[in-house]
Amino acid sequence: MAKNTYETNPYAVELHHISKIYKLKKKDGQKSNDNESFYALRDISIKVEKGDVVGVLGTNGSGKSTLSVILAGISDIDGGEMNVSGEQALISINTGLNQQLTGLENINVKGALMGLSKKRIQEITEDVIEFAELGDFLYQPVKKYSSGMKSRLGFSISLALDPDIFIVDEALSVGDKGFAQKCMNRMKKLRDEQGKTIFFISHALPQVREFCKTGMWIEGGKLIEFGEINEVCDHYSEYVDKLNAMSDKEKKKMLNEKFEQRIIHNYKEGFLSKLFTKK
Ligand SMILES: Nc1ncnc2c1ncn2[C@@H]1O[C@H](COP(=O)(O)OP(=O)(O)OP(=O)(O)O)[C@@H](O)[C@H]1O
């Protein structure tokens, strides 16, 4: 369903009514024919111009990571249409590294999977060695890495692969301050000197305001606002302040209501594709 178009298209990413559905585990006593599923994302449409830097906001469980794997082409959508112009790379805490392989082997596997030449893989390896600053840990299996070290490796590999579209999902939150700053400086260069398209998923609002041009706020799997970054951040902050002012009882009630609204009873495979996908 995801198309990759390289022609002179002003948009890096176009989402037309996309939805993502997860199956819910059966509750005790639930009948086997009561097929319940859950909207992780529902009917989201946006157009992101090439070179835009989009800050993705939303409270826990709102659907940001689900969106990141969809944008990266790792996860399929269940309805709607997605057009992507260019190569994408996801940088996240779960970086998709093979835990059994060493850091160096991971670079080789990634390069080989992408069909790169030996020479290109060698260049990428040198870039990763320089940027990640992992020293001899590169010869150790990734399962022996700390989460910050995995983030260093994942970030460095994605940078070296030089994609057109970066999707950065909370990746800086586990790195130490020095490395996070180094990554931020590099991302600013990608934005200002190379005109890369970046999706930046983060709960760090001051950083989002400073770095991004456009804001995308999702809540309960739905798109609430897509627009100028400071406006979207202001509205999102007001919402978070209101949530914080609620009593525990009110919060619980609201969370349960949000959850209920996302449930699809008697879900039938493929019904969304029929509803939303343009023929
Ligand atoms: N593989 C899965 N199977 C079932 N449900 C899932 C799966 N992955 C995510 N979900 C659910 O989908 C919803 C969206 O999750 P997602 O991880 O995208 O949220 P998020 O906005 O990234 O949250 P956070 O800020 O906590 O990282 C959540 O309710 C989550 O429980």
TrEMBL record:
Keywords: ATP-binding, Nucleotide-binding, Transport. It comes from the Bacteria. GO terms for cellular component: membrane. The keyword Magnesium does not apply. GO terms for molecular function: ABC-type transporter activity; ATP binding; ATP hydrolysis activity. SMART domains: AAA. Residues 24-245 form the ABC transporter domain. Belongs to the ABC transporter superfamily. This is Teichoic acid transport system ATP-binding protein. It comes from Longicatena caecimuris. The lineage of its organism: Bacteria, Bacillati, Bacillota, Erysipelotrichia, Erysipelotrichales.
